[in-house]
Amino acid sequence: MTKDLFDLSGRVVVVTGAYGQLGRQFCRALVRRGTRVAAFDLAADPVRAQDVFGADHEHILPVRVDVRSRDSLDAALDIVNAQMGVPHGLINAAAIDSPPNAPAEENGPFESYPESSWDRVMDVNVKGTMLCCQAVGGQMAEAGRGSIVNVSSTYGLVSPDQRLYEYRREAGGPFFKPVAYSASKSAVLNLTRYLSTYWAGRNVRVNTVTFGGVFNNQDPRFVEAYSARVPLGRMAREDEYNGAVVFLLSDASSYMTGSNLVIDGGWTAW
């Protein structure tokens, strides 16, 4: 019988940001490929697991973790090691951005962007990703196998199109997509490249997935403007990135490391 290159049966994968919109999708997709999943999230709660993951929750281990803390990550890994074993894979999906209802100064001009906002985003998106790679990737390197998938964004490749937010400016006052998210997601790209060469000799592959915007009941004016900017003419569905992470965690991508898989509906092709 021909081996299924996408088979993940019996493998242990850590997903950070697991209770988020994409994180929960990744967890459920992996369970359906036979994976044992450790769901790392600051909001992780076994009581809520069924509401978050549905019937798949029986195959998911929720672990409350602060990705900004190496001590928190080490404690979480002790739980994973004891109940599941050393991970075979890691998806770094934990990230924050400035929400639409953020304080005015956070979405104001670059010249007055708050230092505290920069620190908060960098702490999670860059430091948190690095620490997760350090902790989980370190264990995989010792075991001599593994795959890390770091999640970036089109805004890590190109500048945000500030024209998309014109409807906010028309409502009164300045409004700009802040700088920290873009800078943080760009940093993830080179963290991937660094680690891909660092761990290549220990058979740990490290790749980036760069995603476009996901529909999440945003303001219809934003959705219309965003969709007009995408060659495929729409935002992504929340399940449309599952195939990419399954591919990168599986043997189907066994000769792929240090790469950036862009899935953005053509946004960066213009």
Question: Which short descriptors sum up this protein?
Answer:
alpha/beta, Rossmann fold, 8 helices, about 270 residues, globular
Q: What is the global morphology?
A: globular
Output the radius of gyration.
Answer: 19 Å
In CATH terms, what is the architecture? 3-Layer(aba) Sandwich
Give a quick account of the main beta sheet: strands, pairing sense, barrel closure.
7 strands, parallel
| Strands, count | 7
Strand content: 5-15%
Q: What would you give as the CATH superfamily?
A: NAD(P)-binding Rossmann-like Domain
Instruction: Return the structural class.
Output: alpha/beta
Helicity range: 25-40%
Global mean pLDDT: 95
Structure report:
Helices cover 38% and strands 15% of the residues. The protein has a single domain (12-269), classed as NAD(P)-binding Rossmann-like Domain (Rossmann fold). Helix 4 (115-143) runs parallel beside helix 6 (179-198). A seven-stranded parallel beta sheet has the order 3-2-1-4-5-6-7, sandwiched between helices. The longest helix has 29 residues, at 115-143. It contains eight helices and seven strands; from the N terminus they run E-H-E-H-E-H-E-H-E-H-H-E-H-H-E. The protein is globular and about 55 Å long. With 270 residues, it is an alpha/beta fold. The protein has helices spanning 21-31, 49-53, 70-83, 115-143, 166-170, 179-198, 220-229, 242-249, and strands at residues 12-16, 36-41, 60-64, 89-92, 146-153, 204-211, 260-263. The mean pLDDT is 95.
